[in-house]
Amino acid sequence: MIGGRLLITGAGGQLGHALAEEFAAEQAVALTRADWDVSLPAPAGLDPDLVLHAAAWTDVDGAEDDPQGAAAVNVGGTANVAALGAPLVAYSSDYVFDGRKREPYVESDGPHPASAYGRTKLHGEAAAGDQAWIVRSSWLFGPTGHNFVRTMLRLGAERDEVAVVDDQRGSPTFVGHLAAATREVLELPYGIWHVAADGDCTWAGFAEAIFADAGLRCRVRRISTAELGRPAPRPAYSVLRSEKGAPRLPHWREGLGECLARLA
Ligand SMILES: NC(=O)c1ccc[n+]([C@@H]2O[C@H](COP(=O)([O-])OP(=O)(O)OC[C@H]3O[C@@H](n4cnc5c(N)ncnc54)[C@H](OP(=O)(O)O)[C@@H]3O)[C@@H](O)[C@H]2O)c1
Known about the structure:
Blueprint: E1 6-9, H1 14-22, E2 29-31, E3 50-53, H2 60-65, H3 67-82, E4 88-93, H4 116-127, E5 132-137, E6 140-141, H5 148-158, E7 161-165, E8 169-170, E9 173-174, H6 175-185, E10 191-194, E11 201-202, H7 203-214, E12 219-223, H8 225-228, H9 252-263
Parallel strand pairs: 1-2, 1-3, 3-4, 4-5, 5-10, 6-9, 7-12
Antiparallel strand pairs: 8-11
Helix pairs in contact: 1-6, 3-4, 5-7, 7-9
């Protein structure tokens, strides 16, 4: 599949970074926001044969305050990428589901986002067009950028105890594993694919694993989503699995080990 010019958007983000590493041998053109603000039409002369579209508005709470700003990036930006005319991988999110299910969400489950961010991601899926692999993943973390692992490592080194939500369950996915699986997705037909780490946990369980594996003596106080009081609603349950043979990723705990090794 990969033979021509490969373009990566959002290369300054955690997934974009992992994709640029994974596809370095293909001499991918990796564009940050400074190179192309995707809410604007593409700069002239890009002419890719394939796009891995990882640029997105990912500030979930900020999207509640500025849904139009989030849509300009997640919907308008994806439409601008699709307008390049090349097949694309559009990364989407578990937040397209409301989280009321209590068993894994599969590709044929009807989406029903509860947040403004989730709505923009769902409309972004539609904006990707017909020549697109929609890769939904969840709870991304990696050695760069803003993510839960890096936040917990910082807090765990500063404090004796952190309060972490224990009533949201998902599958924390290492961006290196998602980037590698993207190669396999390119061999599949266009359409929606659920690609998230094996296993699941709550944020509190994830924090305990981070502290244990990093050797930090910080306690986790388990709190509810309501106690944390964030503006945007989050799905209480958003484990993603594939019913159609998407690539299977390693367990989240393995991803955590790889991430911590990279950070060490
Ligand atoms: N993070 C998660 O837990 C998660 C879960 C499921 C799915 N996803 C999806 O996975 C993809 C990658 O997420 P991520 O975790 O790598 O996010 P990220 O680390 O926040 O990276 C997103 C990148 O997009 C850039 N960006 C924002 N607005 C842009 C614009 N108008 N034009 C060009 N670039 C822009 C950001 O730049 P600035 O930093 O300068 O804003 C950032 O470098 C996204 O589609 C996201 O929705 C993420």
